[in-house]
Structures are given as structure tokens and as C-alpha cells.
Amino acid sequence: MGYSAVVADDADAYLSFAAELADFVRPVVLSYFRTPLDVVSKSDDSPVTIADRTVELRLRERIEERFPEHGIIGEEIGGKPGGAFTWIVDPIDGTKSFITGFPLFGTLIALTYEEQPFCGLIDVPFTGERWTGKPGLALFGSRLARTSTCERIVDARFYTTSPDMFTGADAEAFERISKAARLRRFGGDCYVYGLLASGHCDIVLETGLQPHDYMALIPIVEGAGGCMTDWAGRPLTIRSEGHVLAAATPKLHAEALALIRG
Predict the structure, then answer these.
(1) In the chain, what percentage of residues exceed pLDDT 70?
(2) Domain boundary among 144, 165, 192
């Protein structure tokens, strides 16, 4: 992606800080999990709780303290302008899972450079699992994460968070891919992208996502050897429209793109 050597060399330091952030908010997230919560619907009808807002505030405070010159974009509180670097955080990715007691929600922390994905972290508070990614490398905990070698849809294990997110032409594309796959499963939000990076599934298709939903995932999937783009095969940026395709290999990704086009 054209990162300078100096910027690329800084990736480990930024990921170390992202891990500190995740460690800091994990007990806060868990303190709210499976407790009575007031749930408010946002303008797009997605749910939000005091847990989401509290965790995002904690994340933003720490980022502003360490890197006051960096921008910040959060799911609940919006954006703070900055320079070349911008942090993008989703305090609880999978709020619907969170409020129904399902444990595979996550905290997402991304750092972008010139609006391009640079470093990413998926933290799964309930299980204690964590994926991190930077240019050329992804880790599951301290171990190398690698995608599978699957190259054909007919051999692929397919995931999406929910078939309900697809309507109209999007639903038709979803059916073409998911029914062509060897196995299809639903649920998991950010967790399934970690599974993809670790080789446990092969393709993920989603729509209607926001930058805070996908920017942290890109360095992890790509660092593990996979491909992650929009539905036209274009790189995902903070200005993308929310159609996301992630696949274990370039050949599988290309076949999925062809099915999307019909």
C-alpha cells in the first residue's frame, strides 16, 4: 500500500498500544455482559447500550492522551480530525450478540495511515482470544495466523453474520455464493474474520458495514494471506460503501467476485 519504511517500522509499537487499549477495556466490557441493560435504537435501528458508550469513551481518552495529534473515529461518538494517522474503534462489534448473551462479540481497534488500513486488532473479551495484523503479518495471540489454501467455492466454508442483512440484488448475490459453498454458517460478527485469518473458514460476505466494522479486520485478513475488498474488487477505505468480501486465497476471491456479478 505504499507505506514508507519508517511508517512500516512503527507498526509493532502501534499494535502494542492497541493491545494495551484492549487489555484496559476488556474488564469494562465484561462487567456489563449478561447484565440488565437499557438498549436504545440508533437512527439506523441498530442497538446501542451504556456499555458501548462507556467503552468508547475509555478508548478515546487513552488514544488522545498518547497520540493527541492523531484523528479518532468511533462508532458511537463520531470523529475527531487529525493528521495522517486516524484510529477507528468499535467498542462492541456485535451489539446484538452482546445484548442477547451470545459471547462472540469483539472490540475492534484499527489504525489507518492516509485513510488506508494499516494495523488492526480483534479482541474477544469473553474467550480471551485476540488477532492482530500489520502489513505482511497476522497473529492469533502469539502464533502466526494463516488463511486456508481453499481456491474453489464448492470446497469453501462460508460465513456471514446474518442473511437478514441482504435485500434485493444483494440477497441474490448472497444466495449465489452461499448456496454454491460446501458449508454455510451464520453469526459471529468480527469473530468470523478471525476464523478466516486462522484457516477455519474460507469466505465471508457482508453488506451494510461501516468503517468501524471492517477497518480493523483488513490488516488481519490480508496479513494472514487472504483477500478483502468491496464487492467490485476495490480496496476498502474509510469511504467505501459497506459491501465486504473476504476470502482465503486470490483464486477463491476472484470466483466469488464473478458470482457476485452474476
Answers:
(1) 93
(2) 144
The answer to whether 179 touches 205, Cβ cutoff 8 Å, is no
Sign of CA dihedral 239, 245, 246, 250: negative
DSSP-assigned letter for residue 249: S
Count up the domains in the chain and report the number.
2
Asked which of 144, 171, 193 is the last residue of a domain, the reply is 144
Mean pLDDT of the chain: 92
Residue 72 phi/psi, 5-degree rounding, is: -140, 130
pTM of this structure = 0.94
Report the CATH number that the domain containing residue 121 is assigned in CATH. 3.30.540.10
Q: Residue type at 68?
A: P
- 52 forms beta bridges with none
Across-strand partners of 133?
Answer: 120, 138
Q: Are residues 115 and 182 in the same domain?
A: no
Measuring CA to CA, how many Å separate 172 from each of 30, 117, 167, 206, 258? 38, 29, 8, 13, 13
The confidence score (pLDDT) of residue 46 equals 59
Range of the domain at 199: 153-261
| CATH number, residue 227 | 3.40.190.80
Which segments of 58-202 are extended strands (E)? 71-74, 78-80, 85-93, 106-113, 116-124, 129-134, 137-140, 143-144, 157-160, 183-186
- Name the residue with cell 489504525: 111
Three-state helix/strand/coil letters over 160-229: ECCHHHCCHHHHHHHHHHHHHCCEEEECCCCHHHHHHHCCCCCEEEECCCCHHHHCCHHHHHHHCCCEEE
List Cα–Cα distances, 28 to 23, 48, 96, 127, 207, in angstroms.
10, 16, 18, 15, 29
The phi and psi torsions of 28 (rounded to 5 degrees) equal -65, -45
Determine the Cα–Cα distance for residues 136 and 220; give it in Å rounded to an integer: 9
